[in-house]
Amino acid sequence: MEALQHTLKESFGIVFDDLSLLETAFTHTSYANEHRLLKISHNERLEFLGDAVLQLLISQYLYLKYPTKTEGDMSKLRSMIVREESLAGFSKDCGFDQYIKLGKGEEKSGGRTRETILGDLFEAFLGALLLDKDVDAVQTFLDQVMIPKVETGSYEQVKDYKTQLQELLQTKGEVTIVYTVVNEEGPAHAKQFEVEVTADGQSLSKGQGRSKKMAEQAAAKKALEQLT
C-alpha cells in the first residue's frame, strides 16, 4: 500500500484520507474469498459507484465538447471511451495493475493482465476517490488520465468490434450473425454475462462482460482475432 500511495501522490497529487477505501478498491473478490476469516472487503461495490460517476462525467464532457453531435453519436463515442478494454488500458497507464490484490488462483491464471479485472479496478478506484474526496477530485483525475487521450480524437475513429465482424463476414455476401446469452451469474449489481456469437448457425466464439453489450463486444473481438 505504501508504494501505491507514493505513486498516487507523485503522479497525480492524490493523498487518501481514508486508506481503507483505497485498500478496498484494490482488493479483488478472489483475494477476499481466500481470506474469508479476515472479513476483507472487496471492490465490487466501489466499482458500481465508480461506473456511475464515470458515465456522468464523460457524458458531461462530451455534451460540452461536441455541441453539434447527436445523442446517438455521443452515446457511441462514450461507449468507446468507457468500454472494458479502454478502462483496462487506463489502469495499466496508471500502474494500477501492479498493486491489485488477487487470489492465488486468479494470479496464476493471468488475472493481473485480464481486461475485466483491470477495467473494474479503474472504476473501483474512481468510486473510492469520490467517497474520500468529491466529484471534483474525480474530474481532476480524469482530466489527467483519460481526457488527453480523448482529445486526440482517437476514439472517434474506433469502430466497435461487432461492426468490424459484420463487415468482415459480409465481404462475400449476406451472413446471419446472432448473439446469444449462454450464461448469466453474479449479484444484481455485478452481473457477468457470457455471450456466444454465431454466423449462419456456426459458432465463432464466446465472450464475457458486465453487460450483454460488453459480452457481445468481447465475443466479436475474439471472433475477429481468430478469423484474422
From TrEMBL:
Broadest EC class?
Answer: hydrolase
Q: Mainly resides where? A: cytoplasm
Q: What catalytic activity does the UniProt entry give for this protein?
A: Endonucleolytic cleavage to 5'-phosphomonoester
Q: Does the keyword Hydrolase apply?
A: yes
Q: What is its EC number?
A: 3.1.26.3
Subunit and partners: Homodimer.
Function (record text): Digests double-stranded RNA. Involved in the processing of primary rRNA transcript to yield the immediate precursors to the large and small rRNAs (23S and 16S). Processes some mRNAs, and tRNAs when they are encoded in the rRNA operon. Processes pre-crRNA and tracrRNA of type II CRISPR loci if present in the organism.
Q: Which family does it belong to?
A: Belongs to the ribonuclease III family.
Name of the protein in its database record: Ribonuclease 3
Taxonomic source organism: Streptococcus saliviloxodontae
State which gene encodes it: rnc
